[in-house]
Amino acid sequence: MTRDEDVLRQVLEAEAAKVEVRPDALAAIRARTARRWRWLPFGAIAFTAATATAATLVVVALAARPAPDHTAPDPGAVTAPATTPTPAPTPPATSAPPAAPPASRSSTSSGTASASLAVYYVGEDRGEPRLYREFHRLPAGSSPAEKARAAVTEMLAQESADDPDYTSAWPSGTRVLDVSVEGAGATVLLSAAPPDDLAGQQLAWTVAAALGGDPEVRVVVGGREVAKLRKAAALDTLGALWLIEPQHGTTVARTFEVHAAGTVFEATARLTVRKGRTVVTEKTVTLSAGPPARGEARITLTLAPGTYVLELYAFSAADGSVQHLDDHTVTVR
Hints:
Layout: H1 3-17, H2 25-39, H3 42-64, E1 114-125, E2 128-139, H4 144-156, E3 176-182, E4 185-190, H5 197-211, E5 216-221, E6 224-229, H6 234-237, E7 241-245, E8 251-252, E9 255-262, E10 268-275, E11 278-286, E12 295-302, E13 306-315, E14 322-332
Parallel strand pairs: 4-5, 8-14
Antiparallel strand pairs: 1-2, 3-4, 5-6, 7-9, 9-12, 10-11, 10-13, 13-14
Helix pairs in contact: 1-3, 4-5
């Protein structure tokens, strides 16, 4: 109980105790009250008025104060803002339009998906056989094993290289029966074993290009493992210079890019463009890395429509002769 409430209670009890209940009580009370107010000193009157006013304010305040909220807080609730706005009405749900079908990969007439796959062939570099690479678009599934089988099948096919300077180290009639992938390795079932190390490297590099990295390639013939292959060092296996793009026999726009790669002395090669016997242009090519690393370079050419021969080569440090020549014939439209 507050101090104001206690004072009010005492005043009311004191006044009630003086009341005499008798027939003329009301008149007596009125007369007594009049005499009391007349003879009370000014300070008492002021105190009584103030007390009554305070009591009234206390009653009004108690009546106006809201009842305490005894609801327990939600332990999982996040502190909400003081004013929570009324959410806007949600528009009625509508059916989403059907999703467009995903773009399909290019495919052959039989419906089998196709992919651009690297195939390794054999060419000559200063009279020695080396590996060169072409990209062929071939029917293949989506799995690495299916891609490897498609690339090996193309590698074994006679005269499948676009560049007439390239060939295969495998004998005619050799077939791939199956390719499976287990972890970081692959098993290739063939109708015949590799005839020599170069043929084995041609297979190992072709399978690795389809799978990625440097997988171990098990060669199985007639149910028996005949070889375990890995890629040999590029410096000892690949042609010293490659014309990667444009590939032999392709048609290009008047302005196109030549992509070269290789390992040559001081990372310096030469690009000559011929039309018939006429040299149209010559450029020095600086590869991105020197021996023993394999560097790359890109050169932009603009040529008039016609057929051209692109020659990539290096000069011998000993006698200045042309070596490591790789050439492609292209048509500019």
